[in-house]
Design brief:
2 copies of one chain form a homodimer.
Chain A: E1 7-11, H1 19-29, E2 33-39, E3 58-61, E4 70-74, H2 78-90, E5 96-103, H3 115-125, E6 130-135, H4 148-161, E7 167-173, E8 183-186, E9 192-202, E10 208-218, H5 226-231, E11 234-241, H6 250-253
Parallel strand pairs in A: 1-2, 1-5, 2-4, 5-6, 6-7, 8-11
Antiparallel strand pairs in A: 3-4, 7-11, 9-10
Helix pairs in contact in A: 1-4, 2-3
């Protein structure tokens, strides 16, 4: 990367006014020139959705009067924000894309449902080094102060070292005070899943409907996983790829009688 | 798997009335007992979105009077359909989940944007063998007849062999006549991406908006990729995993000065 101040694209999935992205902007302003392109409303659970059957609005907004960088509010998903930022706002690839800080965990299997991580992955697909940050606290009043040190340290490392093609980082931060966090751990994604429960109700017109709820189940006993790290007071750093090929199964699959 | 007729969950992302899912249902009825739970409207490009901030409706519908299996129309995403099918409709895991047949390609990087594949992945996360099928023809009048032979052959193989934990199949079928298709090829996901272009317009109220368009770019010269197979007249079969950890980068990442 260049030695001049890097151009940093900041986005998220909780919406442009969420406290988490405000913290991320603060930290990034210390490290580079910031442009914000983020959804105009919460997009949690949007996964890697993109807007292909609807129009997209994207307009400059002023969130804080004393901010000197430019911010844009977009009607689309986090992945849309990255696409439109590169093509229509920056007219170049930023040197880095950071997404978050998400209000809530994106560890283990949550990565596939995560709008925060889809923005980072979208940037990665476009060849931009990218990091998604999440704090394990869903509250709008979450304390993001303890996250700053780690967000800054990881970002500085990415600016210094770059990232290999096809890899982005998924960083999750436990809900602990600064003194309780033990440091950072490089991890693999834990093998965990959600056991869904649907809360069935009836609306005033007599029609049944459901709310999706669920219980998170981690059966992975490994001490090298993001879940282990987070439960033991560490910030988890998982390198994430978007070549989804199960390479380990190719040989077996080739023994199948597919063309008989 | 059991020797009695397997219970097959059928879903898609083009909506329950799309021609593609009708073909898939026809083939699956030859192989097992079918239950359909699919979106009430098109969900293309929804990626792995789930509905966590809104209500879900899911109701039994009759699409064709002479169909004896049960069909349910759901207001949510493809991933929602799999979750609600397992928990609220079947009250058990189906023996197999098939998704599609999608109107349009889900090869290479399209897998991450694909609602069709997110349904298959969601089933995989829940431990259900799963396959996503796509035909490289966006038209609602697409000819699905030539796909039947391949859909049946792959599904029979999965019923016979099962799939390893953490792996689902992404099957793409070229837009060719039955006699032109050369057979099936086991492939890896090509390293390709979209170069976006936004079509900027102004609405009657004077507000700018955009339509997302783009050009598909495949720089991967490999002859073992899904793109190569499809361009050369083969049906591509890619095993897909949802452990997104970039295992090959863990050692390097551990050399970073993260805790200094």
């Amino acid at each position: 990367m260049t030695k001049k101040r890097p151009l940093i694209l900041v986005t998220n999935d909780d919406g442009i006014t969420a406290p988490g992205i405000r913290t991320l902007i603060e930290v990034m302003k210390e490290l580079g020139d910031v442009v914000v392109v983020a959804p105009d409303s919460p997009q949690s659970g949007m996964g890697h959705a993109i807007t292909i059957s609807d129009t997209l609005f994207c307009e400059q907004v002023t969130i804080k009067e004393n901010y000197k960088h430019k911010e844009y509010s977009c009607s689309g998903t986090p992945a849309d924000c990255v696409k439109i930022a590169t093509q229509e706002i920056l007219h170049r690839k930023p040197d880095l894309c950071v997404s978050g800080i998400n209000h809530g965990s994106n560890s283990s299997i949550n990565v596939i449902y995560s709008g925060t991580m889809s923005a980072a992955v979208e940037a990665g697909v476009e060849g931009i080094p990218a990091i998604g940050f999440s704090l394990l606290d869903y509250s709008l009043n979450a304390d993001f102060e303890p996250t700053k040190k780690y967000v800054k340290a990881i970002t500085k490392n990415v600016i210094k070292n770059g990232l290999p093609t096809g890899v982005v980082l998924n960083v999750n931060i436990p809900k602990l005070s600064a003194s309780e966090i033990k440091g950072m751990k490089v991890c693999r994604q834990a093998n965990a899943h959600w056991e869904e429960e649907f809360d069935k109700r009836t609306n005033p017109q007599g029609r049944d409907y459901y709310w999706l709820t669920g219980t998170f189940v981690n059966k992975d006993k490994g001490e090298d996983t993001d879940e282990w790290a987070l439960q033991n007071g560490y910030v988890s750093v998982v390198p994430v790829q978007f070549d989804l090929t199960a390479h380990h199964f190719l040989d077996d699959l080739n023994t199948w009688e597919l063309n008989d």
